[in-house]
C-alpha cells in the first residue's frame, strides 16, 4: 500500500512536470513575475497582524484595520473588471506594483513613528493597489489557459507564489530577530520593480488605450450598472463558485490574521510564530497535486475534502492546543483544506468563464474575496473578544462543517442531473454540469 501511494505521487509529479512544460509561455512569465512580487510579501505577511497589534491590543480594532484595507480594494474592483476586458493587463499590473514602493515606505514610517494616520493611509493604498496586482495576474492566467489546463495553471500559480512567499518568510525570520518589526517592509519596496521587469515578456491580449477605456467606462457604459448587468449574465453554477470563494476564504483570513495573534497570546516568540506560519503555508506547495487530481477526476470532491479537513482541524484546535506540536499540526491541517480546494474552485470558475469576460469574472471573484475579508475580519475579532479563542474555534468548525454538507448536496444534485441528461441525450457527449 505504501509503494502504491508513492507510485501514484511519483506519477502525479511526472504528469505535473510535463503539463508545466506545455503551458503557454505567457503563463510561465506571469507566474514568475507574481512569484517574485510575492517574495517581498513573504517577509511581511506572516507578521502583519503582529505589526498591527503594535497600534492596538483589541482584536476587533485589528480586524477593523484589515477590513479597511479590503474595503478600498473591493471598491477598486468594480471598474477594474471592465478595464481588464479592454486594456493591456500589464498597464494595470505594473502601475499597481509600482505603487507598492509607497505602500512599503508608508508601513515602515508608520512603525518607526508609531503613526496611526500613516498606517491608515498605507492600508488604503495597499487595498487599492492589491486589486490591480492580483486581479490583473489572474485575468492574464485565465486569458491564456484552456479548459484542459485550467486547474493545473492555477495549481502552478498557487504553488510558485507560495514557494517564494515561504522563502521570504524564512528570510524574514532573520530580519525580525535582529531589527524592529517594521523592517520587514523593505523587500515590499524593492521586489515589485524586479517583478515588473519579468512581466514585460507576457504577450497582451487586449489593446484598447487606458484613457479611452476609462472614458467609455465612466461616461458611456454606466460603470456600476454595466458591471452588475454582466454579473447577472453568468450561469448559476458560476454563482455557486462565487459562494465557495466567499465562504472558503474564512480559512486563510483566520489563519493568516488571527492564529499568529493566538500564538502571541500563548507566549510564542516572533521566531516561533514565523515557523508556525511557515508550517501553515507549506500545504500550498502541494497544490499542484490537488490540481492534477482535479483535472483527472472530480473537482467537487476536492472541495468537499477541503472543507472537511479544515472543519476537523479547527475543532481539534479547541481541544488539543496545549502542546506546541499539537497546535502546529492542527494549524497545518487547517490550511491544508484550503490548499486542496482552491485550485478546484478556480479551475471550475475558469471553465465557466467565456474568454471575453475573463476580466469581469476575475474582478468579481476578487471582489467577493475582498468582501469576505471585509465581513469576516471584524466579525472574527468580535467573536474572539466575546467568546474567547476556544469558542471562536468551535464556531468556525461548525460553519465549515455546514459548508461541507452543502457541497455534498450540490454534488449529488449535479451527478443526478448529468445522469438524466446522458439518458435523454445519449448522442451528446457534453454534460451540462461540471463536476
TrEMBL record:
<dbReference type="InterPro" id="IPR020846">
    <property type="entry name" value="MFS_dom"/>
</dbReference>
<feature type="domain" description="Major facilitator superfamily (MFS) profile">
    <location>
        <begin position="26"/>
        <end position="419"/>
    </location>
</feature>
<feature type="transmembrane region" description="Helical">
    <location>
        <begin position="390"/>
        <end position="410"/>
    </location>
</feature>
<keyword id="KW-1133">Transmembrane helix</keyword>
<feature type="transmembrane region" description="Helical">
    <location>
        <begin position="116"/>
        <end position="134"/>
    </location>
</feature>
<keyword id="KW-0812">Transmembrane</keyword>
<keyword id="KW-0472">Membrane</keyword>
<dbReference type="Pfam" id="PF07690">
    <property type="entry name" value="MFS_1"/>
</dbReference>
<feature type="transmembrane region" description="Helical">
    <location>
        <begin position="328"/>
        <end position="352"/>
    </location>
</feature>
<dbReference type="InterPro" id="IPR036259">
    <property type="entry name" value="MFS_trans_sf"/>
</dbReference>
<feature type="transmembrane region" description="Helical">
    <location>
        <begin position="181"/>
        <end position="199"/>
    </location>
</feature>
<feature type="transmembrane region" description="Helical">
    <location>
        <begin position="20"/>
        <end position="39"/>
    </location>
</feature>
<dbReference type="InterPro" id="IPR011701">
    <property type="entry name" value="MFS"/>
</dbReference>
<feature type="transmembrane region" description="Helical">
    <location>
        <begin position="273"/>
        <end position="291"/>
    </location>
</feature>
<feature type="transmembrane region" description="Helical">
    <location>
        <begin position="303"/>
        <end position="322"/>
    </location>
</feature>
<protein>
    <recommendedName>
        <fullName>Major facilitator superfamily (MFS) profile domain-containing protein</fullName>
    </recommendedName>
</protein>
<feature type="transmembrane region" description="Helical">
    <location>
        <begin position="91"/>
        <end position="110"/>
    </location>
</feature>
<feature type="transmembrane region" description="Helical">
    <location>
        <begin position="59"/>
        <end position="79"/>
    </location>
</feature>
<feature type="transmembrane region" description="Helical">
    <location>
        <begin position="154"/>
        <end position="175"/>
    </location>
</feature>
<feature type="transmembrane region" description="Helical">
    <location>
        <begin position="239"/>
        <end position="261"/>
    </location>
</feature>
<feature type="transmembrane region" description="Helical">
    <location>
        <begin position="364"/>
        <end position="384"/>
    </location>
</feature>
<dbReference type="GO" id="GO:0022857">
    <property type="term" value="F:transmembrane transporter activity"/>
</dbReference>
Amino acid at each position: 500500500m505504501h509503494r502504491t501511494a508513492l507510485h501514484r505521487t511519483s506519477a502525479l509529479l511526472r504528469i505535473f512536470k510535463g503539463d508545466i512544460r506545455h503551458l503557454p509561455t505567457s503563463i510561465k512569465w506571469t507566474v514568475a513575475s507574481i512569484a517574485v512580487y510575492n517574495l517581498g510579501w513573504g517577509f511581511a505577511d506572516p507578521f502583519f497582524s503582529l505589526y498591527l497589534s503594535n497600534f492596538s491590543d483589541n482584536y476587533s480594532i485589528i480586524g477593523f484595520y484589515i477590513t479597511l484595507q479590503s474595503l478600498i480594494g473591493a471598491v477598486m474592483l468594480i471598474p477594474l473588471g471592465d478595464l481588464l476586458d479592454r486594456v493591456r493587463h500589464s498597464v494595470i499590473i505594473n502601475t499597481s506594483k509600482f505603487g507598492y514602493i509607497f505602500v512599503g515606505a508608508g508601513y515602515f514610517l508608520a512603525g518607526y513613528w508609531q503613526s496611526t494616520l500613516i498606517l491608515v493611509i498605507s492600508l488604503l493604498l495597499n487595498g487599492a493597489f492589491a486589486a490591480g496586482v492580483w486581479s490583473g495576474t489572474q485575468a492574464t492566467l485565465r486569458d491564456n489557459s484552456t479548459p484542459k489546463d485550467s486547474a493545473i495553471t492555477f495549481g502552478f500559480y498557487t504553488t510558485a507564489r507560495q514557494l517564494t512567499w515561504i522563502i521570504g518568510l524564512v528570510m524574514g525570520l532573520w530580519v525580525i530577530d535582529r531589527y524592529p518589526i517594521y523592517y520587514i517592509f523593505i523587500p515590499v519596496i524593492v521586489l515589485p520593480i524586479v517583478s515588473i521587469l519579468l512581466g514585460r515578456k507576457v504577450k497582451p491580449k487586449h489593446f484598447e488605450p487606458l484613457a479611452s477605456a476609462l472614458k467609455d467606462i465612466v461616461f458611456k457604459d454606466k460603470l456600476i450598472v454595466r458591471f452588475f448587468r454582466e454579473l447577472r449574465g453568468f450561469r448559476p453554477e458560476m454563482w455557486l463558485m462565487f459562494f465557495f470563494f466567499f465562504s472558503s476564504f474564512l480559512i486563510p483570513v483566520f489563519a493568516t490574521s488571527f492564529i499568529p495573534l493566538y500564538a502571541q497570546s500563548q507566549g510564542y516568540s516572533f521566531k516561533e510564530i514565523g515557523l508556525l506560519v511557515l508550517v501553515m503555508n507549506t500545504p500550498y506547495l502541494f497544490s499542484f497535486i490537488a490540481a492534477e487530481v482535479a483535472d483527472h477526476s472530480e473537482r467537487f470532491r476536492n472541495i468537499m475534502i477541503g472543507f472537511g479537513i479544515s472543519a476537523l482541524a479547527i475543532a481539534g484546535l479547541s481541544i488539543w492546543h496545549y502542546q506546541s506540536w499539537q497546535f502546529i499540526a492542527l494549524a497545518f491541517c487547517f490550511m491544508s483544506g484550503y490548499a486542496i480546494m482552491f485550485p478546484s474552485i478556480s479551475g471550475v470558475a475558469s471553465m465557466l468563464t467565456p474568454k471575453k469576460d475573463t476580466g469581469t469574472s476575475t474582478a468579481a471573484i476578487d471582489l467577493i474575496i475582498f468582501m469576505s475579508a471585509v465581513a469576516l475580519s471584524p466579525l472574527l475579532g468580535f467573536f474572539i473578544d466575546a467568546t474567547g479563542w476556544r469558542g471562536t474555534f468551535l464556531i468556525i468548525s461548525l460553519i465549515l462543517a455546514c459548508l461541507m454538507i452543502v457541497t455534498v448536496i450540490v454534488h449529488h444534485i449535479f451527478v443526478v442531473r448529468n445522469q438524466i441528461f446522458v439518458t435523454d441525450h445519449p448522442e451528446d457527449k457534453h454534460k451540462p454540469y461540471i463536476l
